[in-house]
């Protein structure tokens, strides 16, 4: 693996800036047609949850995947923002006392600490529905079939067979519902659902907007799955090696709760080897796209090399 290039870093930074501006516009206090009002406290808490932090990796993947098929502009940007809104909802609910009970997120108080638990629950609910509203809006894609495909994909990635189901498996792994022993296959499934499904859809959303054929879509989904798996293994490594100050959130949570990760099952060197294999798998999936896919190749390397 080689370090991500300055060109990649510039593109990631530029995308994050544009995404941030669009998220800020979506979270304006001003009601849009069809809304009666936007309660100021709810909007302030939603902005606290979404703005001013994060690498915006998920929307970046959507934008870059769409660019691979010649599609740029508002469609990929809005679809990426929808994915980010959904992701931020999941973080708000994940931080609640009934879930991970975290006080810190991106170096700031979590929503339930900055406001209260009831507001945090409503923030998550509102961000989730807003994500689907953005995808269903003709401003994202003029073709209703594309919009439908996007909504269906996000629902499946984030719902009972994806992120939400993965969160339930995560709670099960903590022993919430009785003592369990997690094997390697169990851990991989949990991670594929809780984290990997949304990262995979981030890529697939760009492919949907690009109206790629089945073969190209399959290759990009394979890339997304490898990237998602690599992201989680790298996250497990960081949880062991980084400090809370560096990450902007509490570390060592899995060890505290006795929850197995691939670091536990494979060892630290085994986990690093897993990352290398996943990078190779992701890059192989992009072979057919040639130099045009270089930014996506850099993205998977960035995922495993990041320090935050």
From TrEMBL:
InterPro entries: Isoprenoid_synthase_dom_sf, Polyprenyl_synt, Polyprenyl_synt_CS, Prenyl_diphosphate_synthase. Pfam families: polyprenyl_synt (PF00348). GO terms for biological process: terpenoid biosynthetic process. Its cofactor is Mg(2+). One of its GO terms (molecular function) is prenyltransferase activity. This is Probable farnesyl diphosphate synthase. One of its GO terms (cellular component) is cytoplasm. The keyword Nucleus does not apply. NCBIfam families: FPPsyn. PANTHER family: FARNESYL DIPHOSPHATE SYNTHASE (PTHR43281). Keywords: Isoprene biosynthesis, Magnesium, Metal-binding, Transferase. It comes from the Bacteria. It comes from Microvirga lotononidis. Belongs to the FPP/GGPP synthase family.
